[in-house]
Amino acid sequence: MTSRDRSAHAADPVQDLVDAVRLYRDAESSMRSQSRDSMHLGRTDMTALRVMLRAGQAGRPLSAAALSRELGISTAATTVLVDRLEQSGHAERRRSATDGRVIEVWPTAATEREVRATMGTMHERMMQIASALPPEDSRTIHRFLVALGRAMTELDFPATGTAGTVTPSP
């Protein structure tokens, strides 16, 4: 890239924004990978713990079937996942307090503390940065990120493995 190309690129606010999104995505991916590594967990395991923590905070504990639906994996794979999380001390099965026939899946107290310690700092930093923005900027960035998220989830990947077109959202 020549110096003329660099200066033209630096003056392109759209390219700068896309580059900033990529920078954030790479940093977040690295942080999540380090967090999984420190807890000795795989990606699906960590995702399952986040789903269980969120459900517990919302007062709606998860059955294995509900966890399976949330993760988009089979019930058999969920059973193996929960067994693995139990064996590693990250999750436990409990009988439902409201329906004794139902078994719920919960993160252990130690895991809750570990995830909060790891992810809490990230969350606090995100909240500090977001709260420093003027409300109009927050609304604009929110619209941008929601639209970007939709564009990514609506990508059509044909069997050839190449990305297709984005389906316009209503």
TrEMBL record:
Start and end residues of each HTH marR-type domain: 36-138
One Pfam family from the record: MarR_2
GO BP annotations, alphabetical order: response to stress
Residue stretches spanning the membrane: none
Official protein name in the record: MarR family transcriptional regulator
Molecular-function annotations in GO: DNA-binding transcription factor activity
InterPro entries linked: HTH_MarR-typ (IPR000835), MarR/SlyA-like (IPR039422), WH-like_DNA-bd_sf (IPR036388), WH_DNA-bd_sf (IPR036390)
Domain of life (superkingdom): Bacteria
